[in-house]
Specification:
Layout: H1 2-26, H2 34-51, H3 62-75, H4 79-90, E1 99-101, H5 104-112, E2 119-124, E3 127-133, E4 146-150, E5 153-154, H6 155-163, H7 172-182, E6 193-197, E7 203-207, H8 222-229, E8 234-240, E9 244-250, H9 255-263, H10 265-270, E10 273-277, H11 288-292, E11 300-308, H12 312-318, H13 326-329, H14 338-341, E12 346-354, E13 367-372, H15 378-389, E14 394-397, E15 407-411, E16 417-421, E17 423-427, E18 431-432, E19 440-441, H16 446-451, H17 455-469
Parallel strand pairs: 9-10, 10-13, 13-14, 14-19
Antiparallel strand pairs: 1-16, 2-3, 4-5, 4-6, 6-7, 8-9, 11-12, 11-17, 15-16, 17-18
Helix pairs in contact: 2-3, 2-4, 3-4
Length: about 475
Amino acid sequence: MKDLRLVLLFISIFIIVVSKHIYCQQNTNCNLTDDQKILGLSLIWKEATYNFPYFDRLEIDWTNTYQNYIPKVIETKSDLEYYLVLQEFISQLKDEHTKILMPYTIENELKSKSTLPVFDIVCLKDGVYITAIKPVVSDTVPLGSEVIEINEVPIYDYLNNNFSIFLNSNFSQSKRRLFTSYFSVYNTTVIESMTIKTTDGEIKTVEVNNTNSEQYSYNSISSYYRKIYMPANSISSKVLDENILYIDIAGAMNYNVVSYFDSIYNEINSSEGIIIDLRNNTGGTSIGSDIACYFTEQDTIFQYVKTRINNANMRALGAYTDSSFSHIVGSTRHFEYSDYYNDEAFITDTFVTINNIPKDRRTLNKNIVILLDSKNLSATENFLMVFKELGLATFVGEPSGGSCSQPLLIKLPGGGVGFIATQKTYVGANTEFKYLVPDIEVYYSIEDFLSDKDPILDKGYSVLKMLLNQQ
């Protein structure tokens, strides 16, 4: 019986090796050895174990998860498949600064496998809607139709089944944004049918030709769709009615934004109020405190983060608190070091910005409204936090994305890069930041898309007018 088991084990290993060899002969991106695959997985596990700050938000056994993924990475038949498993592994940590950046060749291979559906979607708070179509289905699928099912699978089940490995967030507003982004980029499933609810309320099932190569038609919502969902990497301003200054900061945070604010000092100072539009701004350099210096009397701005402490000596002392070692070290003790042993020790880092803006160039007591959405991450959320803590603005729009950290970069086999978040960010010294909830929440509807309305800007403008009238 024992000999039979050995023979069966040998046959199983032989089949795996041969099948992987045949697959690799047919695919160019199949270069990583099993040792390299385990190494990449282990590097991610190790660096997250010692540096990831948000384990207290999760209900997973990280080491057990790592053990479960060892056979998964060994079984992958190509470098692309391997990196998808790494992405699935790291997505368990649910943070947008914690992710895998695939090598360019593998990323391009993944995108080349996308079936490019004949329609594109947006995930709104109240449902999933069609915002772009190809002419081949334009007669049967009206823009703005709600998607109920794809391939007879309820839409949210379909999205989760196909894109869950890319969902490195637990926050609903970020999941909607990520589903919207990934649908046409990483959709490798052939879509044969969909059930929709048209704008007239008709529910129908439409057969779909998923291989059509025509360009999308955005029709009447073209300008709105691109404005909201495609970054512009630009800074601009204009004066609206009643001398309200509108400043649009799209794309990314950098020191060009600081220079731009300095260049429009006269417009800022002479305006009745200011709208700062941060929608679509995904982060960059933390310059929120630099901008806040123009609007506050404070000569010093403090910001706080907490990061993990890895102290080998204190961790060793903390092991004496574990009763499972009592037969070796005697009675439990050194409880003051238990956090180090249990990977729960943090240190607070304080970042200080000295306000060097001359007092005669500071614009004080100005009514400011900031517009935000779920694309606001990282340094953009830092901007929001500074203005929130100093009480400089009223916030209007959608909750921010919920990932304000500093990533550690890890070199992975094959040329990929792993990202691991390393800090908790705080509003003030004691309140841990998750995401910013606006003072006034506003969400897009499909009617806004179809009519080319901007409800967040409209509400921000009306809120600012109300604040001005209360002066």
